[in-house]
UniProtKB/TrEMBL annotation:
Keyword 4Fe-4S on entry: no
Family: Belongs to the binding-protein-dependent transport system permease family.
Protein name: Carbohydrate ABC transporter permease
Lineage: Bacteria, Bacillati, Actinomycetota, Actinomycetes, Glycomycetales
CDD domains: TM_PBP2 (cd06261)
Organism (species): Glycomyces rhizosphaerae
Length: 317
């Protein structure tokens, strides 16, 4: 009897895959070139704008600070501008005021933080307060300065109220020891609305059940804020601290110009006012560029130190 035999299939070692589902000619797990380039294409416009309108002018300003003014216009002068800068008592006064702003920064952050907490906890009238708190942020610094010039005048309403309770008048804008605190206080009042909005946005991401659990456990409001709200809003607090510091260093020119003009005796000088004075009044743009460079370095160092401190505090909590 003949036995029929079928051919035995020959098995071959599998080779590398050269195709994938819907993507012929590519290895499995390797993304197409278009997908790998997509993130860079998307961020390219923002990087271009920052490079052209931020970094390039910054580099030009730093380079310009090493050139001369007046008869030496355009000539390289090395560090001469910085030597003149730190020998100027008005610039040294402005840098001392920067140190004061750093010390007052916690107050500028604490006020909107506490008010945002009360709004989030829905105190009576919280909807009205939200609009009232933000209203000063939409006013021009010139308008705000003019209003507070009237309120803080020596014979103005604020001193009239102090006299009504038996306190002597205060020369809010004429006393060198008081004027800078008055200007900074007005700035905090005028700008805390933006920080309030940022804090409220941070509260939207906070887990409300944690606050409810803390209340059930009998935690007081200060303990809830310290142990629940502050750790939960650590990123928001970092953002508000940095942006508030930048605002205090670069957004007070209008108030200083309208309220005190840098006086009395230069006590309210800030770097940005000094830069304007050297550029616009003294026609010394190279010296103004040097002051701008110093201000940039100060802002960078202070911001990095603040972030490092906040991150360390967050890890300890």
């Amino acid at each position: 009897m003949a036995v029929s035999s079928s051919p035995t299939p020959v098995r071959t070692a599998p080779g590398p895959r050269t195709g994938g589902p819907g993507v012929p000619g590519t290895r499995r797990g390797v993304r197409p070139l278009s997908e790998r380039l997509a993130p860079y294409v998307l961020v390219a416009p923002a990087v271009l704008v920052i490079g052209v309108f931020r970094l390039y002018p910054l580099a030009l300003g730093v380079n310009f600070s090493f050139t001369g003014d007046g008869d030496r216009n355009g000539q390289a002068v090395g560090l001469d501008n910085y030597t003149v800068l730190f020998a100027d008592p008005m610039f040294r006064e402005s840098m001392r005021n920067v140190g004061l702003l750093v010390l007052l920064l916690p107050v500028a952050v604490l006020i909107p933080g506490l008010l945002a907490t009360f709004v989030y906890l829905r105190v009576p009238g919280h909807r009205v307060y939200r609009g009232v708190y933000f209203f000063p942020a939409v006013l021009s610094p010139v308008i705000i300065g003019a209003i507070f010039n009237l309120l803080l005048a020596f014979d103005g309403p604020v001193n009239a109220l102090l006299a009504a309770v038996g306190l002597g008048p205060v020369d809010w804008l004429g006393d060198p020891d008081v004027a800078i605190f008055a200007v900074v206080g007005v700035h905090i009042w005028a700008t805390f609305g933006m920080a309030l909005v940022v804090f409220l946005a941070g509260f939207a991401t906070l887990d409300a059940s944690l606050i409810d659990a803390a209340r059930v456990d009998g935690a007081s409001l200060p303990k809830v804020i310290r142990h629940v709200i502050v750790p939960g809003l650590s990123r928001t607090i970092q953002f508000v601290v940095v942006t508030t510091m930048i605002g205090m260093l670069t957004s007070m020119f209008g108030l200083v110009y309208v309220m005190t003009g840098g006086g009395p005796e230069g006590s309210t000088y800030l770097p940005e006012y000094y830069i304007w004075f050297q550029q616009g009044q003294m026609s010394r743009p190279a010296l103004a560029s040097a002051a701008s460079t110093v201000l940039f370095v100060v802002m960078l160092v202070v911001g990095m130190l603040q972030l490092a401190l906040l991150r360390r505090t967050g890890r300890e909590d």
